[in-house]
């Protein structure tokens, strides 16, 4: 049976970095998160408000942990920009079936190339990714400066990999996999409907969430460009902004 509520929405698909936790390594606001957890507990118990699930570029293990912290026991969450679903109902992981051995081989080649080009300059490949590469460097301006070179090197080799800078990382993801393709899988498997689904995000990577939902909100700290895609922009930052957005959805 699909999860249905008595409210206008059944589901909220929420980005993590810049929404529920800072994109930096600053501590997570656990008081705010516990209010999200309380929201989810009531949503699942009373079916009177939408359940909040996660859709993030982070490694799926990080997403699974936050999903459990916010007490979402019902709805799959999405990690690695759409590569993985994790289902809290039975603890199962699903890699996008459209990712072939050949794609994995290309990602592996990309890892080797990026290591040979940038390891000496201190560029770190974020651990925990399995079908994509995320790059980090403490000097964000330096990191931003190497984006065109990376895109060019991939293009020269005809690798089907998208290169996108977030606030602090460079994400190299398979072109045919993104947050939207994972949301499609989630919807098909669970029976949630776009008209009864809302989304929350803070950067242009979240346009893939915005285009799959019927209502989209941004916390105050979001990029100007994604705010233009929003139905509502909160005056509060990060998790306080998400809590404010959940309030808006209740009315
Ligand atoms: Mg974000």
TrEMBL record:
Picking any one GO molecular function of the record gives: hydrolase activity
- Keywords for this entry? Hydrolase
Instruction: Look up keyword ATP-binding and say if it applies.
Output: no
The UniProt entry, under Gene3D superfamilies, shows: 3.90.1070.10, HAD superfamily/HAD-like (3.40.50.1000)
- Would you say which domain of life the source belongs to? Bacteria
Q: Which Pfam families match?
A: Hydrolase_3
Q: What name appears for this protein in its UniProt entry? A: Cof-type HAD-IIB family hydrolase
